Amino acid sequence: MERTLIVIKPDAVSRGLIGEVISRFERRGFRILELRMMRLTREQAEDFYSPHKGKRFFGDLVDFITSGPVVAAVLEGRNAVEAVRTMIGSTDSAVAAPGSIRGDYGLGLTDNVIHASDSPESFRREMFVLFPSVDMENSF
Ligand code: CMP
Q1: Best residue among 91, 107, 115 to mutate for probing ligand 1, ranked by most atoms within 8 Å of CB
Q2: Under DSSP, is residue 49 helix (H, G, I), strand (E, B) or coil?
Q3: Whose CA is closest to atom 12 on ligand 1?
Q4: End-to-end distance of the chain based on CA atoms, in angstroms?
Q5: Whose CA is nearest to atom 18 of ligand 1?
Q6: Is the dihedral of CA 97, 78, 21, 46 positive or negative?
Q7: How many Å apart are CA 15 and CA 112, to the nearest integer?
């Protein structure tokens, strides 16, 4: 079993899509190990997106992810990182395949509905930023 982290972004939260998005993962068979609504500080957002530091869209990304509440969740299931990345679809919602979460619920690039860890290493780093009090080895 593998774990991954998702963040339902402020655009989707404000549009009332939390339930729709979470239910897709439940129906797919993922177990929800953590689920929390939170408002990221600027510092947390900069840490969370540190791999993108220096890119021209970094400032917009940090502005956007701190613009309203997000819902972060830890999901567990077989091949979770890859399976969830496939479910969310291409980064640019406007070209994401219909049937994927971005392809069904959005058209934005920065405001692209949802984030998911792209590797087990990213998952561990992102957990540290968003769920610092969760002991990965001994909880769940
Ligand atoms: P996410 O999966 O959260 O990871 C990094 C985010 O950066 C990505 O989703 C997009 O929201 C954003 N992003 C990636 N590429 C671009 C780009 N070219 N312009 C603006 N935002 C981008």
Answers
A1: 91
A2: coil
A3: 110
A4: 13
A5: 57
A6: negative
A7: 12
Q: Which two tokens stand for residue 49?
A: 């997106």
Please say if the pLDDT value at position 21 is more than 80.
Answer: yes
Atom of ligand 1 nearest to the CA of 116: 2
pLDDT at residue 6 tops 90: yes
pLDDT for 134: 86
Give the three-class secondary structure for 115: strand
CATH tag, 2-130: 3.30.70.141
Q: pLDDT tens digits for 64-107?
A: 999 999 999 999 999 999 999 999 999 999 999 999 999 999 99
Torsion on CA atoms 59, 44, 136, 89, rounded to nearest 10: -30
The CA radius of gyration of the chain, in Å to the nearest whole number, is 14
116 membership: H or E segment, kind and range = strand 114-116
